[in-house]
Amino acid sequence: MWHTIIIVGNLGRDPEMRYSPNGQAVTSFSVASSRQYTSNNGQTVKETAWFRISVWGKQAESCNQYLKKGSKVLIEGRLSPDLATGGPKTYTKKDGTAGASYDVMASTVRFLSSRGEGGESGSSSTEEGEGFGGRPNVDEDVIPF
Description:
Elements: E1 5-11, E2 16-19, E3 25-38, E4 44-56, H1 58-66, E5 72-79, E6 89-92, E7 98-111
Parallel strand pairs: 4-7
Antiparallel strand pairs: 1-3, 1-5, 2-3, 3-4, 5-7, 6-7
């Protein structure tokens, strides 16, 4: 069996790089993917899903060098479930409500931000307001990691 996930979003924090005991680079960062829609009762609903991304090897070094908080990225990879539950990692937000984040082992990271938006330029065909929208409005206190 095989699965893949594709995520487009913005980095919630600057990437953090470290090295495994055998010397391989691994970079971790969080990505927020947001969407906005109008519900049946006419209310505007904003939802944000958080993903914890891990990237390995030379791609990890590039991500650490060129990405920063706010950079727009496209991630292809696989979900890595919580070993205890088989699902996403759950946590309690500061306001007492439940939240979840998803761990993703990235196989491909594409940089979508232009240099002025934060990060190395990439081949983005989406403009603000089209498709995926701009930076999510994120309260720093609700980032789960």
